[in-house]
Specification:
Layout lengths: L20 H17 L1 E4 L5 H14 L9 E2 L10 H4 L11 E2 L3 E3 L9 H6 L2 H11 L16 E3 L15 E5 L35 E5 L1
Parallel strand pairs: 1-7, 6-7
Antiparallel strand pairs: 2-3, 4-5
Helix pairs in contact: 1-5
Length: 213
């Protein structure tokens, strides 16, 4: 049986030894960076051979990717027309859309034996992410489509500005672009107590994001 721990550069990121001095230092460093800027990148998190495998497996699944809408609200609210949406005034922030040009491979299309699925279901990764984000408990989503998905962004593609609806977002960069590929975010512009809907916040992200590549 394959060991997902072997996919990770444990020398650089000792996530299987969180109680060790190096493990505690790693978690502390991530938490400090998240507290300061709501984002933390972990370059070289995966071993090169694991990354090569994940890219190859993703490319094999690419023909099944779904295009989805070409524009969407930052609240993931108006992918379609609903009565609630129609009841809002034309200038309401929830009706504001920005371009979306990407494809996605949903969770139900990713075979259980792929490296990315094995990594996703590995308890060691879940425990590390819970410690790094300061969560008392971290659970995998039960959504059969969005629990895990692979995004495919072609030349000139983009994802719309959006607020993530979960407490933290984990992104694993499998393949860097030859050029471009900017990742933009705006931290700390709203909270659970203050759900800002001013125009300035309609094109911003408020959820802390961890980015591994």
């Amino acid at each position: 049986m394959e060991k997902p721990a072997e996919f990770v550069d444990l020398e650089r990121y000792p996530i299987t030894s969180l109680e060790s001095a190096r493990g505690r230092a790693l978690v502390s460093d991530i938490q400090n960076r998240m507290a300061a800027s709501c984002i933390c990148a972990l370059p070289g998190f995966l071993r090169p051979e694991a990354l090569v495998r994940m890219v190859a497996e993703a490319e094999a699944l690419e023909p099944m990717s779904h295009i989805g809408p070409t524009e969407a609200s930052p609240y993931f609210f108006n992918y379609g027309t609903t009565g609630e949406l129609n009841a809002l005034p034309p200038n309401h922030p929830r009706k504001r859309k920005t371009p979306r040009n990407m494809r996605q491979i949903a969770r139900d299309l990713i075979p259980p034996g792929t490296a990315i699925m094995l990594l996703y279901h590995w308890g060691g990764l879940t425990r590390f992410l819970a410690a790094a984000t300061g969560a008392q408990s971290l659970y995998r989503s039960a959504d059969p489509f969005q629990a895990l998905n692979i995004s495919v962004v072609d030349e000139g593609g983009c994802q719309q500005w959006h607020f993530d609806t979960n407490e933290v977002a984990i992104t694993l960069l499998l393949q860097a672009p030859a050029a471009g590929g900017e990742f933009e975010y705006v931290p700390l512009i709203r909270s659970a107590e203050t759900r800002t809907t001013r125009r300035s916040s309609a094109c911003s992200m408020a959820t802390a994001t961890a980015w591994c590549n």
